Amino acid sequence: MTVAFINVKLHRGGFILNKGKSLLILSALLSGVLPLGASAQGKKTDSSRGTNRFQFQVDVQAVNLNVVVTDKNGRYMPGLKAADFEVIEDGLRQELSFFSNEVTALTVLLLLDASTSIRQSLPGVKEAAGNFVRKLWDGDKAIIADFNDKVRFSTHFTADVDRLIATIESVYPSGSTVLYDSILISTDKLQSVDGRKALLVFTDGDDSRSQGYGSEATADEAVEGGKASEVTIYSVGFRGSRSSGGSGVNKGFLRRLSKETGGDAFFPDDMTELNQNFSRIQEELHSQYRLAYVPAAKTRSAWRKIEVRIKGRDDLVARTRTGYYAKRMPTETPQE
């Protein structure tokens, strides 16, 4: 089977997609990710002159949420109704304009670290990714991407398991690591599809930026890009050879990335534990409640914090993305 890829190569000041089409970090991301009826304008500025590299004016008209509800032991709670949910934005209760508890198809992007630092774990990464796509539900679609100093995508989203596995098996480790850039590009890639979507990142959490080269984006920018999207991000941390902290996995970054987007991070010790993790991810992705609301009031804050509660049920935990950007999204602190 022939496996075709689209290469996305890093270029100073942005990304080069296919034959020279530029994709600025986060700019295209926001233009395609905004909730129902939203609009945005973005511009890139020169940080060397003391201004933010990226500033966005966003007029959000509706907010979409995917919510996972569990008990204290992590068991999923089906059968809840719209009246059971309470959504709070910046301290103000919101009225739901849409609610669904029906199982719907999912689009998922599997992003595989193929850099030298993950070489010793790559066989396990391939096995885990293969197990995941074999368990896709009817109607689900997936696409495979791998990255080292550039990102490669299989040609399109598909439900063809054999094709997906062939793509996974073709991955070969080499080169440095542009993890942060790859997360931003992958999140943008998912904006080309409708419906629920998720990003699964298989990596040691290392980026060659820490060695003086690697991603254009910073770790903070990668997280902010995830927060600006409606993509739920799950991280699976595999032991690498260059990660800091001595554990071989940058758990702090991966936990932060997943938590902010309503996902979860896993750090399995063996394949048995990993397969258990994947069963949980599969069940969780298909056990989400879908909610939407139009913000009741406009505030001055650029970042609007979201909290979802289950009325009268302190024994239940509702997890979703932590908020959204409504006016301006700075991704770099102004320099004095």
Summarize the SSE layout with pairings.
Elements: E1 5-11, E2 14-17, E3 21-23, H1 27-33, E4 39-44, E5 54-59, E6 63-71, E7 85-89, E8 92-94, E9 96-100, E10 106-113, H2 122-134, E11 141-147, E12 150-154, H3 161-169, H4 179-190, E13 196-203, H5 219-228, E14 232-237, H6 251-260, E15 265-266, H7 271-285, E16 289-293, E17 303-310, E18 316-319, E19 323-325
Parallel strand pairs: 10-11, 10-13, 13-14, 14-15
Antiparallel strand pairs: 1-2, 1-12, 2-3, 4-5, 6-16, 6-18, 7-8, 7-17, 9-16, 11-12, 17-19
Helix pairs in contact: 1-4, 2-3, 2-7, 4-5, 5-6
Run of helices and strands:
EEEHEEEEEEEHEEHHEHEHEHEEEE
Strand order of the largest sheet: 3-2-1-12-11-10-13-14-15
Q: How large, in whole angstroms, is the Cα Rg?
A: 19 Å
Number of strands: 19
CATH superfamily of the largest domain: von Willebrand factor, type A domain
Q: What's the CATH class of the largest domain, please?
A: Alpha Beta
The CATH topology of the largest domain comes to Rossmann fold
Low-confidence segments:
1-58, 242-247, 328-336
Q: What's the pLDDT, averaged over the residues?
A: 79
What does this structure look like?
With 336 residues, the protein is α+β, with helices and mostly antiparallel strands. 23% of the residues lie in helices and 31% in strands. The protein has three domains: 5-58, no CATH class; 63-102 and 290-325, no CATH class; 106-285, Rossmann fold. It has helices at 27-33, 122-134, 161-169, 179-190, 219-228, 251-260, 271-285; strands spanning 5-11, 14-17, 21-23, 39-44, 54-59, 63-71, 85-89, 92-94, 96-100, 106-113, 141-147, 150-154, 196-203, 232-237, 265-266, 289-293, 303-310, 316-319, 323-325. The strands form four sheets. The protein has a nine-stranded mixed beta sheet, with helices on both faces. It has a four-stranded antiparallel beta sheet with strand order 9-16-6-18, with no helix packed on it. The protein has a four-stranded antiparallel beta sheet with strand order 8-7-17-19, with no helix packed on it. Helix 2 (122-134) packs antiparallel against helix 3 (161-169), helix 4 packs parallel to helix 5 (219-228) and helix 5 (219-228) packs parallel to helix 6. The protein is globular and about 50 Å long. It starts with a strand and ends in an 11-residue tail after the last strand.
